[in-house]
């Protein structure tokens, strides 16, 4: 609730300074409350919205070009990206063992207990679960509980565009199998549909639709366990959403980043046991590599977006600094020196 100020006529300069200070404090509260109440940017789209991309509109295309990069993408150093590929491969390695043995000291158990808070051999805790890589029931160290949970979370089925014709996707899937001679999923077919519309959305100035298509591409990469690539897309999506990507051939819509985007980034980083504070290089790399836009024409720069990301994840990652309230009795008492 915002405070209402009753401003009285100042008796002296100190009173005036106090009033100005209090007004500035309330102004900050108003700004913060406005930020928190911004509606989340829409993320999901339906096939109906894709039909709009078949309409030719030269005026929209001309306006859209003002936001797009004019130069071809330069060759980029992929070192930072490849490091994250290795980190994700390591974080998705198989955990636990299926031999009814303590994952710490290898003490054998006659049956797999659901949960052991204290192993009879080494006094360490472990629990029983299924492993996402092969479906085997295994015993896993307690300190790997969150990583195991995130391994499962990050291979959940990818989101599909709403009201997608599943029969059409099945037809595309079969064509892919015939073309490549390998097993294909319905999500591989969906990815082709999405990719076909990305350039159209971009060139027609439907930037919010374009950002949603980026989300579906990220979902496809996450589901097929290309976690590093998925993370770069989610970072790019955060950048587009914070900048208020609009279908009106503009940026700057007053919206907040969709909570699903934040959750996807959070789950991937938890699995690899990193914080957003560890991701400055990969964040900048992601935007510079993927962005189709001239950053000078957008409200937030890459560095400003990264700073916003850190602030957003401050509480989620336990980095928020909470200053305890000072008891009245413990406050320092004022005193005056006497001769």
| Annotation field: number of helices | 12
Report the average pLDDT across residues: 87
Strand arrangement within the widest β-sheet reads 1-2-3
- The domain count comes to 2
Q: Helices and strands: which structural class?
A: mainly alpha
Distance between the termini: 48 Å
- Report the C-alpha radius of gyration, rounded: 26 Å
CA-based shape: globular
How many strands, which pairing sense, and closed or not: the largest β-sheet? Answer: 3 strands, antiparallel
Q: Report the β-strand fraction as a percent range.
A: under 5%
Q: Please trace the helix and strand order, writing H or E for each element.
A: HHHHEEEHHHHHHHH
Number of strands: 3
Determine the fraction of residues in helical runs and give it as a percent range: 40-55%
Layout of strands and helices, then pairs:
Blueprint: H1 13-36, H2 47-51, H3 58-65, H4 79-91, E1 115-116, E2 126-130, E3 137-141, H5 145-153, H6 166-180, H7 186-203, H8 207-223, H9 227-242, H10 259-271, H11 280-290, H12 302-312
Antiparallel strand pairs: 1-2, 2-3
Helix pairs in contact: 5-10, 6-7, 7-8, 8-9, 9-10, 9-11
